Amino acid sequence: MSAIWDVLSIALFAATLRMATPLVLAAIGGVFTERSGVINIGMEGMMLFGAFFGVLASYWTGSPWLGLIAGIVVGGLSGWLHAFLSIRYSANQIVSALGINILAWGVTPYLSSIIWGSRGASASVTGLPRWEIPLIQEIPVIGEILGPHAPTVFMMVAVVIIAQIVLFKTKWGLRVRAVGEFAKAAATSGVPVQRTRYICVIISGMLAGLAGVHLSLGHLSMFTWGMTGGRGFIALAVMIFGNWRPYRVLAAGLVFGFADALQIRLQGLGVPVQFMQMIPYLVTIAVLAGVMGRSRPPTDIGKPYEAG
């Protein structure tokens, strides 16, 4: 019984929140882009770019906040590249996004070897501080779960709330959903389809960049090659499991975050590492197998729009 409690401890649930943060941030970005009709499987590369350039900016300036801004900006630029190729030139959206993943997997270790002399890891940098919520922190159990955490954890909660309001309570959000459902009809109503899609894909890149910053500056205070570990792809499963709705994405992210935190916790109890590392990916497969038939993506997703 004590062994079970060692696993199901308050620290596990606090770790769940930390592990869920990059998944939810990237998945919310995926909600924006796919609600507008553009597929983005390039979130893995965008996260990797955000993680790398966040560390690089912190290394050069000594400020993790400038690193956070740099990670978001570079993530947004990679989102713009995907939008430029897939919207402006109607390139295959899957191929374009995969190209960004390949670019990130190749460029980041190359630059790391030039700057730090190692393809595998950067030097340690100043990471983001830990925040606590003063009143909530005094509440037993809940206070321990909700803090202290990196600012990106609290930003994730704010992003979910803002995304839910923007997409389902504002005129612009209605336009985004209309573009993803029937772009031609939306254009007939005066909605700028291509501009709307550009904005949504760039938002997706910025949130993926922020997710990468959480991994590098909010968690490790350094960059390691491949540190995203497939989380960009898991974020796609989180988005689908959440049925393209921000509040459901948060719930789905916590499920996947729990699986990730659990496998780390079990490794500390002597369970074989290789088996435990499979848990998040097995959960991904199980969830996708269970919900793919019941989830309905936006109707015009993946379909290029030609004005005029």
List its traits.
308 residues, mainly alpha, ABC transporter involved in vitamin B12 uptake, BtuC, globular
Please characterize this protein's 3D structure.
It is a single chain. By secondary structure, this protein is mainly alpha-helical. The chain has one domain: Orthogonal Bundle (ABC transporter involved in vitamin B12 uptake, BtuC). Helices cover 71% and strands 0% of the residues. The protein contains 14 helices and no strands. The protein has helices spanning 2-7, 10-35, 43-61, 64-88, 93-116, 142-145, 151-169, 171-181, 183-188, 193-220, 231-241, 246-267, 273-276, 279-291. α3 packs parallel to α5 (93-116) and α4 packs antiparallel against α5 (93-116). The longest helix has 28 residues, at 193-220. It is globular, with a radius of gyration of 19 Å.
Short overview:
By secondary structure, the protein is mostly helical. The protein contains 14 helices and no strands.
In CATH, the topology is named ABC transporter involved in vitamin B12 uptake, BtuC
Number of domains: 1
CATH superfamily: ABC transporter involved in vitamin B12 uptake, BtuC
Q: What's the rounded overall pLDDT mean? A: 87
What percentage of residues falls in helices of 4 or more residues? over 70%
CATH architecture designation: Orthogonal Bundle
Number of strands: 0
Q: Identify the quaternary structure here.
A: single chain
Structural class: mainly alpha
* Helix/strand order: HHHHHHHHHHHHHH
User: Rg, please?
Assistant: 19 Å
Q: What is the CATH class name?
A: Mainly Alpha
Spans where pLDDT lies below 50 across 5 or more residues = 1-7
